[in-house]
Amino acid sequence: MTASSSSSRSGQPWVLGLLGVAVLGFVVWGFWRASQPPAPYFQGQMEAREADIAPKVTARIARVAVTEGQQIQPGDLLVEMDSPEVRAKLAQAEAAKAAAQAVSDKAQHGARPQEVQMARLNWQRAQAGAELAHTSYQRVQSLYDQGLVSAQKRDEAHTQWRANAAQAEAARAQYDMAASGARAEDKAAAAAQVRQVDGVVAEVQAAEAETQLRSPVGGEVAKVLAKEGELSPQGVAVVTVVDLQDQWVVLNVREDQLQRFALKSRFTGQLPALGGHSAEFEVTYLGVLPDFATWRTTRGNQGFDARTFEVRARPAAPIAGARPGMSVVVQP
């Protein structure tokens, strides 16, 4: 046996022992790694500001002017609606306004010139009758003083004069009233009636304008629930508009891991739908979820029950291509 073969046999146990130690160490490290809690991993999703647009009046849908995915601006027409009831109410309100305006004009203008002339002539006639009765009374009084007529005749002439004088005063009052026109209170009441009817007309016109349903916000049409020919109830949304410029991510985080998402803090998330694009987010809202099913025990036999919080964070910069519903992964 040579010296080289002898040394080779003596080195094999050492190599095998070293290999065994290495394998044992790897197995121990694997068990230790498996016993460690997994690294925290959070997954949320993008959300955006949505506006559900509904009509204020019940009407039948005549035409849908937008489609899903269409970009619109504030004031753009969404849906045209047909409401014969609104048109009928508008006609009634306009007729009531015309009647109230006529009454107001009559109160403002007063009596017609012919009516004033008639009142003046009646007063002049009554005045002439009163003067004639006074002259007759003076004659009867002179005869009475001479003893030619009785006191009864004198009293009758006096009464006739007083009655004619009262009629003349009444005719003068009628003439003055016709000449001066309506009372200030009547004019004010007529003008107030016109303003009241103007309010009714404005209300019906506002309802008519609502039959042309326009978007109060700009963005992208996410849903179109309206269909031509359907009866759309009041207050039921027919179009949903989403503002893609106002997006945020929502995460559900257990409270023992919440320190990582302090208010105003920033973190980095990845969007798998955009090829793993990374974006920085800033926490803007923290709120506990109201569902008690979100409670979790921290340890099986003791400890406290951890609740789940909702975390909202907005992108530090706009994310090109981001849309509501896309997942956001936050890794350690």
From TrEMBL:
Q: Which InterPro entries match?
A: HH_YbhG-like (IPR059052)
Chain segments annotated as transmembrane: 12-32
Q: Report domain YbhG-like alpha-helical hairpin positions.
A: 81-205
Q: Which keywords, in A-to-Z order, does the entry hold? A: Membrane, Transmembrane, Transmembrane helix
Record SUPFAM superfamilies:
HlyD-like secretion proteins
Spell out the Pfam families in the cross-references: HH_YBHG
Know the name of this protein?
HlyD family secretion protein
What is the native source organism of this protein?
Paenacidovorax caeni
The organism's lineage? Bacteria, Pseudomonadati, Pseudomonadota, Betaproteobacteria, Burkholderiales
